[in-house]
Amino acid sequence: MDLIRNYKIHLLALIIVLVSEWIGILKFGLVVLLPLLYALVLGAVASFPRWNFIKLPEMNRAGKMLSIGVLILITKIGLDIGPNISMIMNSGLALIMQEFGHFFGTLIFGLPVALILGMKREAIGACYSIDREANVAIIAERFGLDSPEGRGVMGMYVCGTVFGALWVSLLAGIIAQLGIFHPHSLAMGAGIGSASMMAASMSSIIAVHPEWEETVRAYAAAANLLTSVLGIYFSLFISLPVTIKVYEFFTRDKGGSKAAKAA
């Protein structure tokens, strides 16, 4: 009830939503700017510590309200899957295969960059997945969040929360307008296991291909659900062990975290 009674947060959120929706969807060449982008920017500006407008306790309360919003979003995702379940079942193999891109993409592209930048075992936690809640839990159980791997996964979790939706919103809008991939393929790629990132990228795809709105939502929701369910086991038994082996092969840094964990 203390969360609900915080009228300042609710009023600010309402103002941000109204302003963002008033601006609407803007297109600049291949770049598609969505209300979600404006809302994130306005929220970041309003909560900037130097302004002292939103206090830290209020930010913590707002963070707790996020879980309620995610529940509503997940319900909407389930409602999008139901009417298109037969179409999704026919694309089951494609939805499963895209899991390899979701998780090995972070290994192939992310790990080399992390090593070039000088990261040590933090690179394992940062690059074995997209580092959402379930992935943080895996690293916490295996290494502990006070370990180098734990610092890596938490660093990427924070970056994904702050910049992830912004980045995928712009990227999906640009790729959708290039016409290289079918909207259904783009929708599957949008379901990476993060509800906020999926919503941001899915909205950009729909803005470019409004005629495919219903099926784009269905494919994105199905891919996101599949990633959330299978992704935990994929990360635990495939992605994380492979990332550890690749890191240790290139750096010759073996057993450091095992010793730390034993201590």
From TrEMBL:
<keyword id="KW-0472">Membrane</keyword>
<feature type="transmembrane region" description="Helical">
    <location>
        <begin position="7"/>
        <end position="25"/>
    </location>
</feature>
<protein>
    <submittedName>
        <fullName>DUF3100 domain-containing protein</fullName>
    </submittedName>
</protein>
<feature type="transmembrane region" description="Helical">
    <location>
        <begin position="157"/>
        <end position="180"/>
    </location>
</feature>
<feature type="transmembrane region" description="Helical">
    <location>
        <begin position="220"/>
        <end position="244"/>
    </location>
</feature>
<feature type="transmembrane region" description="Helical">
    <location>
        <begin position="65"/>
        <end position="88"/>
    </location>
</feature>
<feature type="transmembrane region" description="Helical">
    <location>
        <begin position="186"/>
        <end position="208"/>
    </location>
</feature>
<keyword id="KW-0812">Transmembrane</keyword>
<dbReference type="Pfam" id="PF11299">
    <property type="entry name" value="DUF3100"/>
</dbReference>
<dbReference type="InterPro" id="IPR021450">
    <property type="entry name" value="DUF3100"/>
</dbReference>
<keyword id="KW-1133">Transmembrane helix</keyword>
<feature type="transmembrane region" description="Helical">
    <location>
        <begin position="100"/>
        <end position="119"/>
    </location>
</feature>
<feature type="transmembrane region" description="Helical">
    <location>
        <begin position="31"/>
        <end position="53"/>
    </location>
</feature>
